[in-house]
């Protein structure tokens, strides 16, 4: 169980504190409610670009990384389609400095032509290395627009077109920063071997604002409206040729959003299909000498309407459509015949084990507090395994029946060029 307290600063910043007595380190985690889904379709990739720009320094602190390193700490960030997350971990003596760094770059980021030009080149190089020069690296660049026609999930975090980033103007990024990088659009979590009162006093000092305890369940994740998809009426298929080691197939079906009654059931559907050597896909499709070298099933995990995924790397001499048929057969069999209580308990146990391990480090706990607060229910950070335990075999079968429909299928195929 994660013990935490929740506050709201007078400037609108949501703050969580966690007494982490099992570590000599302090973590400051800041989640901004801006991801790729918040971008203008003509200016995509900006959320990810800002992940880089935020390390560019301010007038007060020109070299952000150098200060963190001088404390003996480390820092990093990531962007997804829903939000952008930053963290700093330092020895507890450096907590005030870490808080100062985050408050400073929220308010006074140095946005100038030189800094923008540097990060535009960095992001473009990342695009070339990770998306264009890696086998299957451009998968999401093709699969997302195949699955989504209206929702902004139709582009990846790198952007729909890298030229949107490379041609961005200083005015473009300044406008983006002013709109999204505000205290009332962020969640701050502090985890340290200190009392709650000490941590919140340090936060108030660096942000220059008073705070009060709150039980508010504001869901930043659901407070904006996005264009919604019309129901898919027929299956879609896209074949691309690339210099890849083997042919590959990706199958995707629309599923509910994070608040849908079947979200957790869909998560366990993917586990039943592919997690572990006793899973259905492994035994029917992957076992040595069968059809593929590897296969997987998973959900995209988006807050909004997500995707149920199945994928496989095809063995030489095997037809892609035979592999797709084999994957579908397992999905449809689960939908038609269901599963036993024993099979469900196996994946529930595996989920709980993974969940508990994911909170082993105080830094992970801080990140989880931000994530669940962003979703609108901080206490899920402690209650989530219980919610998964409540699922029954009927819940899993119902979710599979709802998702695995032939007319909802999206299929991306990699052929060898």
Structure notes:
Helix 11 (320-337) crosses helix 15. Helices cover 42% and strands 19% of the residues. The protein has helices at 46-53, 64-70, 95-108, 113-132, 139-147, 163-166, 170-180, 196-207, 263-274, 280-286, 320-337, 341-357, 362-375, 380-389, 393-403; strands spanning 5-9, 14-19, 25-32, 74-79, 84-91, 186-192, 211-213, 236-242, 248-254, 292-299, 307-314, 410-416. The protein is α+β, with helices and mostly antiparallel strands and 417 residues long. It contains 15 helices and twelve strands.
Short description:
Helix content is 42%, strand content 19%. The protein is built from 15 helices and twelve strands.
Radius of gyration: 23 Å
Query: Taking all residues together, what is the mean pLDDT?
Result: 95
Number of helices: 15
Range of strand content: 15-25%
| Strand neighbour order, sheet with most strands | 4-5-3-6-2-1-7
The major sheet is characterized as:
7 strands, mixed
Report low-confidence residues grouped into runs of 5 or more: none
The topology string of helices and strands comes to EEEHHEEHHHHHEHEEEHHEEHHHHHE
Find the count of extended strands (DSSP E, 2+ residues): 12
Report the helical percentage: 40-55%
Global geometry? globular
Decide which structural class fits the backbone.
alpha+beta
> Distance N terminus to C terminus?
52 Å
């Amino acid at each position: 169980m994660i013990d935490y307290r929740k506050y709201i600063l007078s400037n609108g910043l949501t703050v969580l504190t966690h007494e982490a007595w099992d570590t000599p380190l302090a973590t400051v985690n800041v989640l901004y409610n801006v991801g790729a889904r918040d971008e203008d379709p003509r200016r995509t990739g900006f959320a990810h670009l800002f992940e880089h720009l935020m390390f560019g320094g301010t007038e007060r602190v020109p070299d952000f990384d150098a200060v963190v390193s001088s404390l003996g700490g480390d820092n990093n960030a990531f962007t997804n389609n829903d939000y952008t997350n930053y963290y700093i971990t330092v020895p507890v003596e450096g907590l005030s400095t870490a808080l100062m760094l985050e408050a400073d770059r929220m308010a006074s980021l140095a946005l100038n032509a030189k800094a923008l030009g540097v990060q535009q080149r960095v992001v473009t190089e990342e695009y070339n290395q990770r998306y264009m020069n890696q086998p299957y690296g451009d998968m999401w660049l093709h699969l997302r627009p195949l699955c989504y026609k209206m929702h902004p999930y139709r582009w990846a975090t790198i952007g729909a077109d890298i030229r949107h980033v490379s041609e961005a103007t200083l005015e473009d990024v300044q406008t983006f920063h002013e709109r999204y990088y505000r205290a009332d659009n962020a969640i701050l979590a502090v985890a340290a071997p200190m009392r709650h009162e000490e941590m919140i006093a340090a936060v108030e000092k660096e942000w220059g604002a008073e705070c009060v305890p709150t039980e508010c369940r504001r869901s930043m994740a659901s407070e904006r409206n996005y264009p919604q998809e019309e129901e898919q009426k027929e299956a879609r298929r896209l074949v691309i040729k690339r210099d890849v080691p083997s042919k590959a197939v990706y199958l995707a079906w629309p599923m509910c959003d994070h608040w849908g009654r079947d979200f957790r059931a869909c998560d366990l559907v993917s586990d039943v299909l592919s997690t572990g050597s006793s899973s259905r896909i492994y035994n029917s499709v992957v076992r040595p000498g069968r059809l593929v070298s590897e296969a997987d099933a998973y959900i995209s995990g988006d807050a909004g309407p997500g995707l149920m995924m199945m994928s496989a790397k095809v063995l030489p001499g095997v037809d892609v459509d035979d592999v797709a048929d084999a994957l579908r057969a397992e999905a449809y069999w689960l939908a038609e015949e269901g599963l036993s209580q024993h099979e469900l308990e196996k994946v529930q146990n595996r989920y709980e084990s993974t969940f508990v391990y994911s909170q082993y480090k105080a830094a992970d706990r801080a990140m989880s507090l931000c994530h669940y607060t962003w979703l609108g229910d901080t206490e899920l950070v402690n209650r989530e395994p219980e919610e998964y335990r409540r699922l029954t075999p009927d819940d899993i079968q119902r979710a599979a029946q709802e998702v695995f429909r032939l007319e909802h299928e999206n299929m991306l195929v990699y052929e060898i060029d």
